[in-house]
Write a structure and sequence with these properties.
By secondary structure, the protein is α/β, with parallel strands linked by helices. It has two domains: 10-157, Rossmann fold; 215-343, Rossmann fold (3-Layer(aba) Sandwich), CATH 3.40.50.1980. It is built from 13 helices and 14 strands. The protein has helices at 10-16, 69-77, 102-107, 118-123, 145-150, 175-190, 193-211, 241-248, 267-273, 288-297, 305-308, 317-320, 326-343; strands spanning 46-50, 53-57, 64-67, 84-88, 110-112, 128-133, 136-137, 154-157, 222-226, 234-236, 252-253, 262-264, 277-282, 312-316. Strands 3, 4, 5, 6, 7 and 8 form a six-stranded parallel beta sheet that branches. Strands 11-9-13-14 form a four-stranded parallel beta sheet, sandwiched between helices. A hairpin with a 2-residue loop joins strand 1 and strand 2. The longest helix is centred in the middle third of the chain and has 19 residues, at 193-211.
Length: 344
C-alpha cells in the first residue's frame, strides 16, 4: 500500500469549505460509470434516510473521505472511487493486493493509518465523511456527524453501526440487510441505482446459494466469533456481520441473542454455550496464530468442543465487518462447516 499523502493546511481549507456539505458542485466525473450529473433526468434533489436521519442531497458528493476497509470497499464496489478524496485505514487489515478493487486502492489517496480526525477531513476538502460509530465516529474523540456539520461537511453512517438505544448498543438491521441498505441508499445519493441494484441481486444470490446447502437447524454446528481479548473476549452479537455470515453458512451463532454488534462477553458464557467451532477475526497487533495459541492453551476452554477437536477457523477482518466481501465469506465458511459435518 502507498504511504499516506501529506496533509494541506486545515485553516485554508476550512475557509474553502464554507457552504459545502451535501450540495457541493458536480463536475460530471460520473459519466464513465453511467452516473447522471446533478439534476439530470430530474434525479436531484434526493432524500434518503440513514440511521433514522433524513438528509436531502441537491447534488452527489464529490470529495468523500472513508474510514476503514469495509466502508472504503463499499464505495469501490459501487464504482465511486472518482468521488473519493481519500480513505483512512490501518495497515493491519490484510492484503488488498488480490481484491477486485486493487486498481481503486491505487487511485484513491491513503490519508492515514491511524484514527480519522476532523483535520484529515478538512485537509482532504471532504464534502462527505463515510464512517460508523466505533468505525471512525465517536463521542469520545469528538468526531461526530454533528461536529462535522459545523464544519460544513456531511456524514453518512455505516448502517451496521447505527445506535439502537441509549446505552451505546449498535445495530438496527440484520447484518446483510445493513449491507444491502447501504448499497441501495448510496446508489440513490450518487445516482448509481442500477449498479447498486445489480450488486444487491448478485450478493443475495451468492448468499442464498450457500444457505441452500445448510443442514437442518438441529444439525448445525454452533459457532463462536473470537475477535480478541484475554480477560474477556470481544465478540459479535446479532447485528454484526459474523451473525449472518455464520447463520447463512449453516452454523448456529452462539451469541445470536446478544442485541448489539461488536461487544464484550464473559468466558463463562462461552464455556456454557460450548461452541463446536471458533472463528478467529484476523486483524490487529495480535496475530491469528497467537490468538489460536491462546485459545488452545487457556485452561477454562479446555473442555469446549471447538478446542478439544481443534476446530478453529480464521477469517479476515474485512470478511467479517460490513463490506462487499461478506457474501464470499458466507460461501467460504459454509465450505468449512460442511467439511466438519462430513468429518463428524
Amino acid at each position: 500500500m502507498r504511504r499516506p499523502t501529506a496533509p494541506l493546511t486545515a485553516l485554508a481549507l476550512t475557509l474553502a469549505l464554507t457552504g459545502c456539505g451535501a450540495t457541493v458542485s458536480d463536475d460530471d466525473r460520473g459519466a464513465a460509470h453511467g452516473r447522471h450529473p446533478a439534476g439530470a433526468s430530474g434525479r436531484y434533489p434526493v432524500t434518503v434516510e440513514n440511521c433514522g436521519i433524513r438528509t436531502t442531497y441537491d447534488k452527489p458528493p464529490a470529495r468523500v473521505v472513508t474510514n476503514d476497509v469495509g466502508i472504503t470497499e463499499i464505495m469501490f464496489a459501487l464504482g465511486l472511487e472518482d468521488r473519493m478524496a481519500g480513505y483512512v485505514m490501518p495497515d493491519d487489515k490484510g492484503d488488498v493486493g488480490a481484491v477486485p478493487w486493487k486498481a481503486a486502492y491505487g487511485k484513491v489517496p491513503w490519508l492515514g493509518k491511524k484514527a480519522l480526525t476532523r483535520e484529515i477531513a478538512l485537509d482532504a476538502r471532504a464534502d462527505l465523511v463515510f464512517a460508523g460509530w466505533n468505525y471512525g465516529f465517536g463521542e469520545d474523540t469528538g468526531l461526530t456527524p454533528a461536529a462535522l456539520k459545523k464544519l460544513g461537511i456531511g456524514s453518512y453512517v455505516l448502517t451496521e453501526s447505527c445506535h439502537n438505544g441509549r446505552d451505546g448498543a449498535r445495530g438496527v438491521l440484520p447484518p446483510l440487510e445493513a449491507l444491502y441498505t447501504d448499497l441501495t441508499t448510496l446508489g440513490k445519493i450518487f445516482g448509481v441505482e442500477d449498479r447498486a441494484a445489480a450488486l444487491v441481486k448478485k450478493y443475495r444470490k451468492q448468499v442464498a446459494d450457500a444457505a441452500a446447502k445448510a443442514p437442518a437447524p438441529a444439525k448445525r454446528p454452533s459457532v463462536f466469533l473470537y475477535d480478541d481479548g484475554r480477560d474477556k473476549p470481544f465478540t459479535s452479537g446479532k447485528y454484526a456481520g459474523p451473525h449472518d455470515i455464520i447463520t447463512k453458512a449453516g452454523g448456529d451463532h452462539v451469541m445470536k441473542d446478544l442485541k448489539d454488534s461488536w461487544t464484550t462477553v464473559g468466558w463463562e458464557t462461552v464455556v456454557a454455550r460450548d461452541p463446536d467451532v471458533i472463528v478467529i477475526n484476523d486483524y490487529g497487533d495480535t496475530s491469528a496464530a497467537r490468538k489460536k495459541k491462546f485459545l488452545m492453551s487457556y485452561a477454562p476452554l479446555a473442555h469446549v468442543s471447538a478446542v478439544k477437536h481443534h476446530r478453529i477457523y480464521v477469517m479476515d477482518y474485512a470478511d467479517l465487518v460490513e463490506s462487499p466481501r461478506n457474501p464470499a465469506a458466507v460461501t467460504d465458511l459454509a465450505r468449512y462447516l460442511r467439511g466438519i459435518r462430513a468429518g463428524g
